Amino acid sequence: MVQRRLPRPSELRPLLRPAPFVRDATQRRLRRAATIADLRTIARRRTPRAVFDYTDGAADGELSLSRARAAFARVEFTPSVLRDVSSVDLGRDILGQRSTLPFAFAPTGFTRMMHHEGERAVASVAQDVGIPYALSTMGTTTIEDVAAAAPGARKWFQLYLWRDRAVAKDLVQRAADAGYDTLMLTVDTPVGGARHRDTYNGLSIPPAISLRTFADGAMHPHWWFDLLTTEPLTFASLTSTGGGTVADLINRVFDPALTMNDVDWLRGTWGGKLVVKGIQSVDDARRVVDAGADAVLLSNHGGRQLDRAPVPLELVEPTVQALGDRAEVLVDTGITHGADVLAAVALGARAALIGRAYLYGLMAGGEQGVRKAVEILTGEIRRTLQLVGVKSVDELRPSHVRLRPNG
Fold this sequence. Notes:
- It is built from 18 helices and 12 strands.
- By secondary structure, the protein is an alpha/beta fold.
- The termini are far apart.
């Protein structure tokens, strides 16, 4: 028979340990997040639907994005046990400089729409953590202001070529003068993708207050307060947007006649590292490297341009094999976990770029949210390395990972 008794107060005391109260509301909110998916959930609650969908959505039926994420779900690691992994090195050389982590912050447009702290917050986190940050041509903070906000960060500038080449040349010179060491030319936007969520939500640039957005804004007063009480929300590198959707802007000012001649021109104009972003075939990777690119970024623009585009992760191995040591291979799209980053590196990528993952953090809690996203990814990278039985990111090889068959 079990003998029951009342517990003594001294026995209950160790069990009753309420979590300390955190005064900061943002910290309380972020403390509950253990994954990037958790940050996404918080972000969805914190921002108007049109803003969240601008970040979360993709083109047409969003098949490119869903297939990219499905590819990472197919990843299977092949761990080796009985290895000393008490200490692991998460660093990685990327384009000639050491990064503390094997990923960089990808360029994202209209970042201050997600949270009023915007690009300055992201660059500040990149500086403190020690990873590269790429500022977008469609950013909402100027080249110079980002440089001033994070003077110690490694800064890259992402460039769209305009119909007016003089504008592009001016942006390139401004980036060089402000200390950006890498130029990233995006080549997958001859026209804007069909981003239906933006159309359905009536999202315009800059945001307009319609009856629908006013009703949604009533549910997110903090977001509207921040928008209306900080500097006007514009594309900082563009003198005029003319209104309309992002796709409208792309079709109006970006050049659909972009060719290899422009890559040659840019290589002759820019003295730093040159990355070509939006490569979706091995043949195109060879072509831009022949023209002088230091790296290719395998990307389908986060699924936001051509739907049913190739899956970037699946292109890593053949591209690495084709290029050898002539250029570095980077990859993005669909990365939501530290293990995704390591899978890409194991297959041969030099590093990954993340976009939505840190934007969810930004929407969830500004700069603190971006730091939380990096904290989550860092923990996942470290833990995955240890469980795979590898002491450093540089030791990863194709033998450590495979892609399971579909189905």
